[in-house]
Design a protein that fits this description.
The complex is a heterodimer of chains A (about 325) and B (about 425). Chain A contains 14 helices and two strands; from the N terminus they run ααααββαααααααααα. Chain A is an all-alpha fold and about 325 residues long. In chain A, helix 1 packs parallel to helix 5, helix 3 crosses helix 8 and helix 5 crosses helix 6. In chain B, strands 1-2 form a two-stranded antiparallel ribbon. Chain B has a two-stranded antiparallel sheet with strand order 3-4. Chain B has 19 helices and four strands. The two termini of chain B are about 35 Å apart. Chain B has about 425 residues and is mainly α. In chain B, strand 3 and strand 4 form a beta hairpin. Chain B folds into two domains: about 290 residues, ABC transporter involved in vitamin B12 uptake, BtuC, CATH 1.10.3470; about 100 residues, no CATH class. The chains are: A mainly alpha (about 325), B mainly alpha (about 425). Chains A and B meet through helix 3, helix 4, helix 9, helix 12 and helix 14 of A and helix 6, helix 7, helix 12 and helix 14 of B.
């Protein structure tokens, strides 16, 4: 029992921190532009594909650095030549634009790389078990993922709260006009934040690609979950995004690792049903089975009972 | 009575619409054409119902397929019930079943999701959409798992001897339903509730101040939209006789957003245009190229950037010039910019296709293109560049003509 718990926790941590890397960029972009970037997970996918192509030529480590940079530049271009133009037509148009962008990137990935799964591998140096516990191995690459994610979080936190650039960004989020009057180029700041946010998503793609497989559907798998996290955590709240990421990561991981469900619950209550009962599917439901829908359930509940999210500001 | 008067005033348009719906299959009577018309019929009702939500009510939904899909699933289940003679009525009323289910689902979900508009609403709709799509794979008795469920529309009482075995027979049923649904959705926009939906979209605070609950107004629009989405789902069930999980997931929700947006939100006719254009692209383009989804994505982005009000908005932009009787002055500049644009488009598509056809020569617009040959690439690129230069050169002229066509007419013009 304990071993299941420990490994579920570790895996949940890996997923949660990975989700946070996406969610942090998304929530930064949201607090700045007031727009949820639907294409965020598509940039994550682009990161994985870029890194795959680079790793074919030069190996994993060059991809780790170059791919996020490429994705970031691409993101900044999208902001400069797409979003900024659409901005005049209102928020709905912006949302719809990013939605269309996600659609286009998915198609473009299939155009350039094909629809099959790519053999993108983790580097051989990290191909050893980090430690063995209860006879099960924990791969070093997963430890590396945790390490990178934590480093990013600390770095982001430091830049945003301690550095001059971070202070200007924070000011630009709440008072863009004042910051512009002080002589800062606010559109450039917006472009930069969008670029950094997408680069973070790209980085997440680079390190997740080898573990979660690199295929054209990978944006779809994580896309809506990241939204769920940003909304649960409270739109625009970075700590909220961290808490929600870990919450969702652990919740899913525990649900998958558990082996209980309705049959056990019914047994506990002393009720039994015929197999031919019309709601048979409901009575035989197990927790691993509903693991994929748990985040959405959480989202709907949070939105109904606490629409601002866990750490979000109350909107009026 | 006011409503009846407005309808009477516009009755020629409605008669023409009905005539078009009923007359098209007489002109284009191939099997492919009929199946395209059937898809259009479904798309029109679905996109119009979506426009009720986003265009008229200002609620951006990412889970509209839920009502379409649930309506469709119940409709197929009803077909099965008719087949096993549990219930006995003509299948032409199946869309009503879909509509009722869509309405019930919308009443339940709308009771908590319409509290707020904007991002909160969009996110709840996304969450509900994913929730229902994921659940549909779990409850496989009802939803049939990945394979979906299927029925047969030829059972039950015949309708004046018609058993609906053929697609064109079902098209007429669909056409009548499309007409009824379109008429009622239009009438809804003319009711106080429809008018207030616009007011709440534009400024919920003001609507509250004149004594309306913006939440209730949103709820009413939401329920009406669910009802018509369900009818569209019922039409889908009748046409295809099967339905799968795919019809209530995010992809279908995305497609209806695309249709309504490309057509033009805010104009009643917009979603109809969008449904027709996208269905045509979907069915015709996919015969010619595997990359049609890529082109669709590009077209969608360009529409959002350059035509934020969609095709309908583009047409309506010419209203001033039309009233001023100056539409003709725009014809030549449009022609001058249209021709090179078409060449440019053809050039870009040729290059995209050439990079996709790894090394194989293929026919394109009557030419044979060989991706291996450098000369072909040079010619195509040269044509595209020349066309691009042509577009750039024609742009100022169009701008000038546009400005003069839309200028406020001076006294001499207005008299004539």
């Amino acid at each position: 029992m304990l071993e299941v718990f420990v490994f579920a926790t570790l895996n949940g941590l890996v997923t949660g921190l990975l989700l946070f890397m996406l969610a942090s960029g998304l929530t930064l972009i949201f607090s700045m532009m007031g727009v949820l970037n639907f294409a965020h997970a598509s940039f994550y996918m682009l990161g994985a594909y870029f890194a795959y192509s680079i790793s074919l030529k030069t190996g994993f480590w060059a991809g780790l650095i170059l791919a996020p940079l490429l994705v970031g530049v691409l993101g900044a271009m999208v902001e400069r030549y797409g979003l900024r133009r659409v901005h005049q037509s209102g928020h709905v148009a912006e949302l719809v634009f990013t939605f269309g962008l996600a659609f286009l990137i998915d198609e473009a990935v299939q155009f350039f790389w094909g629809a099959d799964t790519k053999n993108y591998r983790s580097p051989e140096i990290l191909d050893f078990p980090l430690f063995t516990m209860f006879g099960q191995e924990f791969p070093a690459y997963r430890g590396f993922m945790i390490g990178i994610s934590v480093l990013i979080f600390i770095g982001l936190y430091y830049v945003l709260t301690r550095s001059r650039v971070g202070i200007i960004i924070q000011a630009a989020i709440t008072h863009p006009n004042t910051v512009a009057n002080l002589g800062h180029n606010v559109p450039l700041i917006f472009m930069g934040v969008f670029g950094v946010g997408t680069a973070l998503a790209g980085l997440a793609g680079v390190i997740a690609g080898p573990v979660l497989t690199t295929f054209p559907g990978m944006a779809l798998v994580l896309g809506s979950i990241v939204f769920v996290i940003v909304v649960i955590g409270g739109l625009g709240s970075l700590p909220g995004a961290l808490i929600a990421s870990l919450l969702v990561g652990l919740l899913q991981s525990y649900a998958i690792a558990s082996d209980v469900g309705m049959p056990e619950l019914l047994e506990l209550l002393g009720i039994s049903f015929d197999r031919n009962h019309p709601l048979n599917d409901l009575w035989t439901l197990s927790l691993p089975q509903i693991a994929p829908i748990l985040p959405y359930l959480l989202l709907v509940l949070v939105l109904i009972f606490r629409p601002a999210g866990l750490l979000g500001k109350r909107e009026e | 009575m006011e409503i009846l008067k407005t309808i009477a005033k516009k009755s020629p348009i409605w008669i023409a619409y009905l005539a078009a719906l009923l007359g098209l299959p007489l002109i284009f009577d191939s099997i492919l054409a009929i199946s395209i018309f059937n898809q259009m019929a479904i798309g029109i009702v679905f996109a119009l119902s979506y426009n009720m939500l986003l265009g008229q009510g200002g609620m951006l939904s990412f889970g509209h397929a839920v009502y379409f899909g649930l309506g469709g699933f119940l409709a197929v289940h009803t077909l099965i019930l008719i087949e096993f003679e549990t219930v006995y009525f003509s299948i032409i009323f199946i869309p009503v079943i879909g509509g009722v289910i869509g309405l019930l689902a919308a009443i339940f979900i709308g009771s908590f999701s319409t509290r707020k508009a904007g991002t909160v609403f969009a996110m709840i709709s996304l969450g509900i959409g994913e929730l229902i799509a994921a659940s549909s794979l779990i409850f496989s008795d009802f939803f049939g798992g990945e394979a979906g469920i299927s029925g047969d529309r030829t059972y039950g009482p015949t309708f004046f001897g018609v058993d609906f075995a053929q697609n064109d027979q079902i098209y007429y049923v669909a056409a009548i339903w499309v007409f009824i649904a379109t008429l009622f959705m239009y009438l809804f926009t003319q009711t106080p509730a429809g008018r207030m939906a616009n007011a709440v979209r534009d400024n919920p605070e003001r609507a509250e101040f004149i004594g309306y609950s913006s939440r209730r107004i949103r709820f009413i629009s939401f329920c009406a939209s669910g009802l018509f989405a369900g009818i569209a789902g019922g039409l889908f069930a009748l046409n295809y006789e099967f339905i799968t999980e795919e019809n209530l997931n995010a992809a279908t929700s995305g497609r209806v957003l695309l249709m309504a947006y490309i057509g033009g939100l805010g104009y009643f006719i917009g979603p109809i245009i969008g449904a027709v254009v996208l269905t045509l692209m979907n069915s015709l383009l996919s015969n010619y190229t595997e990359l049609w989804m890529l082109y669709l994505g590009i077209m969608f982005l360009l529409t959002v950037i350059y035509l934020p009000r969609g095709f309908a908005g583009f047409i309506m932009m010419h209203q001033v010039a039309w009233i001023n009787n100056r539409l003709r002055s725009l014809a030549i500049p449009y022609l001058l910019i249209g021709l090179p644009s078409l060449v440019l488009l053809a050039g870009i598509i040729a290059m995209v296709e050439m990079s996709d056809h790894e090394g194989e020569a293929f026919h394109y617009l009557g030419f044979e293109l060989d991706p291996e040959s450098f000369i072909t690439w040079a010619i195509v690129a040269g044509f595209s560049l020349a066309a691009y230069a042509g577009v750039r050169a024609a742009l100022p002229q169009l701008k000038e003509a546009w400005e003069s066509a839309n200028a406020v007419p001076d006294s001499k013009d207005s008299k004539s």
